[in-house]
Amino acid sequence: MAKVLAIKGNKKLLNAWAFYDWANSVYSLVISSAIFPIFYGALFRSAGVEKVLVFGGEIARAPLISYVTSAAFVFIAIITPLVSGIADYLGNKKVFLKFFCYLGAASCIGLYWFSLENIYLGLVCYFFGLVGFWVSFAINNSYLPDIAFPEQQDRISAKGFSLGYIGSVLLLLINLAMVMKPSLFGILDSAGEVAEITAMKYSFVTVGIWWILFSQYTFKHLPKGYKREGERTNIVLNGFLELKSVWQQLGAETKLKRYLGAFFVYSMAVQTIMLIATYFGEEEIDWGTDSERTTGLIISILVIQLVAIFGATFTAKASKKYGNIQTLITINIFWLALCIYAYFLKTPMDFYIAAGLVGIVMGGIQALSRSTYSKFLPETTDTTSFFSFYDVSEKIGIIIGTFLYGFVAQVTGSMRNAAIFLGVFFLIGAFLLTRVNKKP
Length: 440
Hints:
- By secondary structure, the chain is mostly helical.
- The protein has a single domain (2-433), classed as MFS general substrate transporter like domains (Growth Hormone, Chain: A), CATH 1.20.1250.20.
- Helix content is 80%, strand content 2%.
- The chain has 15 helices and 2 strands.
- It has helices at 2-5, 11-47, 61-90, 93-110, 119-142, 144-147, 150-180, 195-221, 238-250, 254-284, 290-322, 324-343, 348-376, 383-412, 415-433, and strands at residues 51-54, 57-60.
- Strands 1-2 form a two-stranded antiparallel ribbon.
- Helix 12 runs antiparallel to helix 13 (348-376).
- It is globular, with a radius of gyration of 21 Å.
- The model has no long low-confidence stretch (mean pLDDT 80).
């Protein structure tokens, strides 16, 4: 049965690949966007402190988690080519997919013990949760040209993102019920900890279990991977040598090179917005009370996720009618308009509208960017290294984007000015995309 499913283009194989988004997307929503940011702030507020002694000095809570996040992405940018090169050389990338899946899931479960007293353990779990999610996501992406024909890739990529949004929203709703009504789940106040905080910790455990449980379907049906031909030398450094090889091949692949340049610029802005949107809403919107702020931010996150389900599917249909590049150009212009709109946001309703508009294009630009890159790849079985190059470009963009965003916000004293600054990247991205299909 497994051999039948491993045939390229097989419907069940495609669905098994897409289902990994259902398994791991709960991390990006519950941990990155929703429950953990609320838990992290509540942890410091309940202790009545804004700074913690860590790494040999006192660091405020916001910079601390920002520094750990940046360090994690630097690590991810380094280890992704290392892992992908070894995986392509040995032909066993599913082993690495499993390892980083389980690493990320175990780290989510480990967040249950996150506390100011165990700050190092908590930060390590947060760090490796990021690593597990992003590296396994990169490896799974690299399977796309292996399991789908070019005409299938837009649709199945969009389906993966849609499944991810549905699954993550489903678990988030359960987690929110736990946090808002902990007594219904048998979660009560304990010595030194209120029930809501305990419920948040249990939600981290549910993410890890969900991730492990639902990834099994993907692991069962995905092929082991392609084994590289030739003598096995420089296995450890092979990933970096492969990146160099990919860079050299780009010289002859004008369309791919131009697309990657455009992707690097606009993805820098997209990923930065996804990481800081909650913090922007928390600081710049007049919510009223703390309770209304928490509820409003959660509603906004849910709106983004639900609308994104339709956004990814709509974008796939638009790309089929108008072409990938033209659709991406239009989406970049839409993002530019959103950045300008963000400058004027004041009320909760303004933020809800922005959340809905972001949802329309957030899933679409991610899914279409992934499948467009896959279509432009040259004929090769070395897909992992090419997707490693893609993901390393994205991670370097995140590091640069988050740093520049913080720098502009700090220098100008306003996150609104930083939002306008990000809009410039979408304008440049749209312009660079117009050059992709032009003749050399």
